[in-house]
Amino acid sequence: MDDSKVGPAGIDVSVAHPARRYNYWLGGKDNFAADRASGDELQRLFPKVRLGALANRAQLRRATQFVAESGVRQFLDIGTGLPTADNTHEVAQRVTPDARVVYVDNDPLVMVHARALLTSTPAGRTAYIQADLNDPQSILDDPQLRETLDMSQPVGLMLIAVLHFIHGQGAAKPIVRTLLDALPRGSFLVATHATSDFGTPEQQALYQRLIEEGKSDVWTRPRDEFAELFEGLELVEPGVVPASEWRPDDGEAIPARSDINIWTAVGRKP
User: What are the beta bridge partners of residue 234?
Assistant: First the structure.
């Protein structure tokens, strides 16, 4: 992307954004110099961070396929990020062509690229909402959500690598609860979340200092706090595990947990 040009309306190209940094780690081109600098600095301090990004993306694919194969025909994907291979609707519609997906993100650049997301099989449908997870009720009240999804039928709620941008101990749980309370029985929650659980004490102290100094926007959470997000749900085996260990593909190499640093789980609303 040519950083010499003025960014699209609403985009401050001098400030790194998680969606664009993630795009950079995945090998995409929809990012600016600030995003690349932020990504490079985090990778310098934590050399395996890109492996975690790739494992996270692979988990999105596996979990979406599982939820679709479980009979769910509609998905609410919050924190969509920029289009890349195996977007949620592509994976779901390979299983069931009539799957419907609503994407949500707060990055204006995602809206610019929404046309790439808003493709669908003729039988299915996709929509995009620009909104912030910090205000979950605004997402639930958006007319496009109601026009695209039948909220009386099960929904796959996808919160992939987004809850760790909600800062503060216990701050993510009420947001997840608001969203789950609006979904009917048989819905699924799929979440991934960065953690410092597998780091050395020195790495944990370093990361905490980066947060305090405003050099990282990722608020890591320990396993117990992440697991609380699934309170009242039926956890799908193997439960709460690192992203690379949730039903890996046959023959797939499992990296060290300290190389991934991402918890994941899938739960069904009874």
Answer: 268
Distance CA 95, CA 228 (A): 30
Is-contact 176 225, C-beta < 8 A? no
Residues 212, 167: Cα–Cα separation, whole Å: 11
Determine how β-strand 74-78 pairs with β-strand 156-160: parallel
Locate 65 and state its tokens: 């396929």
- Amino acid occupying residue 171: A
| DSSP annotation string for the chain | --TTSPPSTT--TTS--HHHHHHHHTT-S---HHHHHHHHHHHHHSTTHHHHHHHHHHHHHHHHHHHHHTT--EEEEES--S--SS-HHHHHHHH-TT-EEEEEES-HHHHHTHHHHS---TT-EEEEEE--TT-HHHHHH-HHHHHH--TTS--EEEEES-GGGS-STT-HHHHHHHHHHTSPTT-EEEEEEE--TTS-HHHHHHHHHHHHTTS-------HHHHHHTTTTSEEPTT-SEEGGGSSPPTT-----HHHH-EEEEEEE--
To the nearest 10°, report the CA torsion of 203, 204, 205, 210: 90
**Tens digit of each residue's pLDDT (9 = 90 or more) over 209-262:** 888 887 778 899 999 999 999 999 999 999 999 999 999 999 888 988 988 899
Q: pLDDT band at 1, cuts 50/70/90? A: very low
Separation CA 260–CA 257 (nearest Å): 5
**pLDDT tens-digit profile of 177-213?**
999 999 999 999 999 999 999 988 888 888 888 888 8
Q: Phi/psi of residue 51, each to 5°?
A: -60, -40
